[in-house]
Amino acid sequence: MDRFHAYVDANEDRFLAQLKNLCSQPSVAAQKLGLTETADMVLEMLQAIGADARLIQVAGAPPVVYGEMGSGDRTLVVYDHYDVQPPEPLDQWESEPFSPEIRQGFLYGRGVSDNKGDLVSRLQAIEAYQATVGELPLKVKFFFEGEEEIGSPHLAQFVAENGELLLGADGLLWEGAAKDMCGRPALYLGLKGIQYLELRVKGASRDIHSSWAPLIPNPVWRLVWALNTLKDERDRITVDGLMDHVAEPPMEEMELLKKIPFEEEQIRKDFGIPQFLGGAEGIDAVKRLLYAPTCTICGIWAGYTGEGSKTVLPSEAMVKLDFRLVPDLEPELVLDLLRKHLDRRGFEDVDIVPMSGEHPAQSSPDAPVARAAVEAAKLVYGRDPVVYPLMAGSGPMYELSQALGIPAVSGVGVGHAKSRIHAPNENIRLSDYIQAIKYMGEFMRLFAASD
Amino acid sequence: MDRFHAYVDANEDRFLAQLKNLCSQPSVAAQKLGLTETADMVLEMLQAIGADARLIQVAGAPPVVYGEMGSGDRTLVVYDHYDVQPPEPLDQWESEPFSPEIRQGFLYGRGVSDNKGDLVSRLQAIEAYQATVGELPLKVKFFFEGEEEIGSPHLAQFVAENGELLLGADGLLWEGAAKDMCGRPALYLGLKGIQYLELRVKGASRDIHSSWAPLIPNPVWRLVWALNTLKDERDRITVDGLMDHVAEPPMEEMELLKKIPFEEEQIRKDFGIPQFLGGAEGIDAVKRLLYAPTCTICGIWAGYTGEGSKTVLPSEAMVKLDFRLVPDLEPELVLDLLRKHLDRRGFEDVDIVPMSGEHPAQSSPDAPVARAAVEAAKLVYGRDPVVYPLMAGSGPMYELSQALGIPAVSGVGVGHAKSRIHAPNENIRLSDYIQAIKYMGEFMRLFAASD
């Protein structure tokens, strides 16, 4: 692979120019901005490296860019997305979000890390591999969607209509994990699921003067009492039956947890809190972060919330809750348990409005795709990667992984701990970018040769 | 008194013109609009009927218009206010709020009922009395403030500085009660007190991604748990010790309650609720409305409350509570009980931010001023007035009544059940206005002659 590595180094400027070109094209899913234009650009890039590529439409969604190339015993699905987060607030950018700019070894621009950087680096690795080693030693199927940043609302529909394209693949490469605060390469084997929902309660037909409070039901109190039954003062979720679906991490995953560096002092200082919930420390805190389901009040609203006092008895109340779901806790199950829990306590008047839901997803560290991801990291970065058996966050991994029986791993991506994804001044280190291209080449070689 | 009544009838057009003139002058305390101009107009009206009147300043407040006239064994304080509610929303008025207009037997305009109508009608009654019967048979002290609609924030200060002006008076006439839905005259002997406050809780130093929820304290949950200890699911206030200060109404007040008409079906229909809290009906509902203290969530806010989902762990949470206070429950007591209640349960992190507070006030139905108010109503309206021993609402009556040892009663005012005070198209019936002038004349005569 020496020639491969040398080729990547020699083409650094051209590779960065390609990335800058794609990042110059806005593609904001939340604003339906530039998505078809970007899909066309990605399609051309796929075709340029020899893939048999096309756009696949699902009603109401921007196109999925799908492509296939190579052959071998192993089939790899590469998942990335060509859409990005909105660039706002614009006045906090030091250079234009859609005019990528290199400053002192970093490239700044919306999407340079999340996730156009990962996407482009992987195509460039294939170009370099073909130019130096020869034909790809495995079959690669590209799956690039344009709605990840708004929760991939059409992904399940796509899989229902086109899932057979991916069936039988041996592994799924999922975006890319960022290097951690100390520069260690990281990768992850799963994501929590999520069920986001609103609870809504109605009272009188309109807001009325609060002097009527002795006689008129107050929906805000109803909401408080209902919420109080969902989680106790020790932060334990008390929804009937929910914790029955939560297991301790298996031994092998506990071993992975022990190796995860966790700068807890720094985190607490950064968030301005004296201690974590329940006083958790060290591996207990890591375990809790990755393996505890959550029931979070993300927002609550009722009545008058402005300055000063208004003596009003509100006619409605609303809370936004997100449940983060560990393996075995499915979104539909949570909705069902919650409805029964509330009804059992006389809260039939509390409406549940389901919003986005995503299944949890997790793959085994023993899957060939995971082992190849780890070995490639050792080769390219010269150290063991930090392997997260789960991430605290969520994503649509399940639909392309568990649902199709394909083990998944993130791989090491182009980002770092301060890449500021979803924020102004998103950036990557140029050196990380080049390493990520090399990583993809070694990963493909190792995965193709895996047992 | 026949000549008095005839004089009032004969001067109807002029009296209405005087009221329209005062209502043409905006005087919105919340917007600091036109208050000194209005105080000057009221001062002139007092001087025109022969009162020894002047403006009294308290730092930071619009002037109190104070006046004295007449002499006799009895001294009556007349409390009204010359400020009005804001006229907004303007587009819902059928005529200009500050260009009073007569249409089909009604006068429309901001303040025609609350409270310029009451104020002017009382001065006109004195003019008529002097023009027909002769010198006033009692001493009258006028106290007209300009901040009632924003909670009379300087009233206590005024009493501290100038209370001796009123000391020793035998009775206080407080604004005026509106006729009820069936046209019955009403009056009231007291008002609930109120303590409005905010509870605030802080968490992390900024809003953070909700994937951190297993480790980072959520102030919204803290607020929910704290609130849950304040009131139970049967709507009983559970603040330690608070209900110890709540007594059953005395027998004589229960007798008054029995005579209060209460169109409960109509009220429930109007508010769109199937039943009152606890299924209360009839006299139980009336008793609850007037004699139950309340703890009402008037507003609650935290985190993201817009459309759709945002996975955020909020850094702060706030609720606005109003406690309505029955006799013996003082604002300071409620604040003290609440702080101790929260501390005892480990909620030292829940801050209490006191906002406006008003003491409850109540006078005896046997006070001469109350008996005169009832007898005058029988004479003028030809039927027993509905006597409310308390009102469900609040007001600054205490400072001028209990605090100075002066029994108070509302008297019958110029308004009716659909006068739409505080709302667009505020109005009074012209015939009610003339009756209210006559009522004031008979009331003064009876009170002057009382034992």
Describe the structure.
The structure is a homodimer of 451-residue chains. Chain A is of the alpha+beta class and 451 residues long. Chain A folds into 2 domains: 2-191 and 360-448, Zn peptidases (Aminopeptidase, 3-Layer(aba) Sandwich); 193-246 and 292-358, 2-Layer Sandwich (Alpha-Beta Plaits), CATH 3.30.70. Chain A is built from 13 helices and 19 strands. In chain A, the strands form 6 sheets. A 6-stranded mixed β-sheet of chain A has the order 1-2-6-3-7-18, with helices on one face. Chain A has a 4-stranded antiparallel β-sheet with strand order 12-14-10-15. Chain A has a 3-stranded antiparallel β-sheet with strand order 4-5-19. The model of chain A has no long low-confidence stretch (mean pLDDT 96). Strand 12 of chain A pairs antiparallel with strand 12 of chain B.
Short description:
The first copy, chain A, has 451 residues and is α+β, with helices and mostly antiparallel strands. Chain A is built from 13 helices and 19 strands.
